[in-house]
Amino acid sequence: MLSTALSKGDIETAERDFYSLLSEARALDAILLLSSEGFYRFYERVAEMMQGLSVRVVGFFRDPLDAVFSNYNQTVKRHYSTLRFSEFCGRVAKSANENISGARLIRWADSFGDDNCRFELYSKNNSRELSIESRFLEAVGVSPSRFSKFSIDGRMVNRSYTLAALELKRLLNHVLNDENQEISSKVDWFLQRHSDCSEEPPVRAIELLDACSVRALCDAFSSSNHALKERFGWDDDSFGDYSDFLNGNVESIPVTPNSIVSPGGPLKRLCEENPQVVNQLREMVVEHMMDGQAPYSLLKLADLFNVPFDEGKHAPELMTKKRLQIFLREDVKKADFLRELSLMMESSGDLFAAGKLIDRARKFRPNGRGIQKIQHRIQKERKERKS
Q: CA 290 from chain center: how many Å?
């Protein structure tokens, strides 16, 4: 509730809701506990809203090499990303993503003071014997003698998608978006249930990447890991110890059991449980295949849904016969010329140029539905690359 208002920049609603909850807690002579990942980005707004109050900030931090896969999982599950994991990691390594590096934890400590913050490692190898739930209770002030009063359910819920489910969702993101929320929600609920019931062991990024990519991630986060250990006094020697990777003592294996992924498995189960949804998805795939040139991952999706296509027709071809005819026409319209140039740039992978060209084409033909559709697609692709 509060984090949603903060994410929308609705400070007035956030403050109203916060002080309403605070009044409730005071009436009960209780401490108000607010728990949400959604607060993570808004340390400044939260600090302003809670100025003058006694506040304790509690957080858990996961090693970036473990967090990167979880972060990728969310971009595919919730944000319709079609990026492959290796490409996603390449961008993370270049940007040292703040959501993963822990830079925001330092900003929380700067905003509230180190004495008012307790940040711990989310690590299965933590030397302490307490469970993550007990560590949280202890951090928020619950006496260990009262831990038994709390019911802790050990069931696995809302875990990351299995690799097969994740790959299926990545492929489906070519046809799913915010405009078809209903079917997207049905797909997500199924894949989440499928993953929660799976007995597959958790996956680490290093199992899915080549050694060069792993070392790039190690280089990107080594200094920030050191800064976090120094700032918060973490004494877990296993955290941030990438020496084996950096010294070449551990190599990723190109093909492992975990790297062999079959998205057809969860799709078959979905078909058995809800054939109507699968048929609806197939219709969406057919519609997207009719748009013309299709990327390789969309062809993979079409193959999964048994949608026939000519492999040669969908191979990258910048100067098609139709495009050449448009360019050579003496009466060619500026909008048509720019649209075709934009499509060429998109096919070559230059989304910046493609975006500029299609934006210009839109100025000459603002109501052209074809141009609008291309513009929307390129904007989505550029947004994914930046994320």
A: 29
Please answer whether residues 230 and 239 qualify as being in contact, where contact means their C-beta atoms are separated by less than 8 angstroms. no
The pLDDT of residue 249 is above 70: no
Averaged pLDDT, 141-152: 83
Answer whether 288's CB lies under 8 Å from 174's CB: yes
Distance separating alpha carbons of residues 134 and 351, to the nearest angstrom: 48
Closest to 343 measured CA to CA, from 313, 378, 386: 378
Q: Who has greater pLDDT, 261 or 290?
A: 261
Helix (H, G, I), strand (E, B) or coil at 147: helix
d(CA 17, CA 2) in angstroms, rounded, equals: 7
Cα gap 346→354, rounded to integer Å: 5
Q: What's the rounded Cα separation, in Å, for the pair 13 and 82?
A: 35
**3 state DSSP class of 225:** helix
Count of Cβ atoms closer than 10 Å to residue 249 Cβ:
8
| pLDDT digits 0-9 by tens, 54-106 | 999 999 999 998 889 989 999 999 889 999 999 999 989 988 778 889 999 99
Burial of 171 (0-12, 13-18, 19+ CB in 10 A): buried
CB 38 within 8 A of CB 6: yes
Averaging pLDDT over each range in 27-41, 95-109, 160-174, which range is the top one?
160-174
Whole-model pTM over 0.85 = no
| Helix runs in the chain, H state only | 2-7, 11-27, 43-49, 64-79, 85-95, 98-101, 103-112, 132-139, 163-172, 181-196, 211-232, 243-246, 264-273, 275-289, 296-304, 321-328, 334-348, 351-364, 369-386
Q: Tell me, what amino acid is at 230?
A: E
Contacts of 340-349 spanning 24+ positions with Cβ under 8 A: 342/374, 342/378, 343/293, 343/374, 344/318, 344/319, 346/374, 346/378, 346/381, 347/293, 347/316, 347/317, 347/318, 348/318
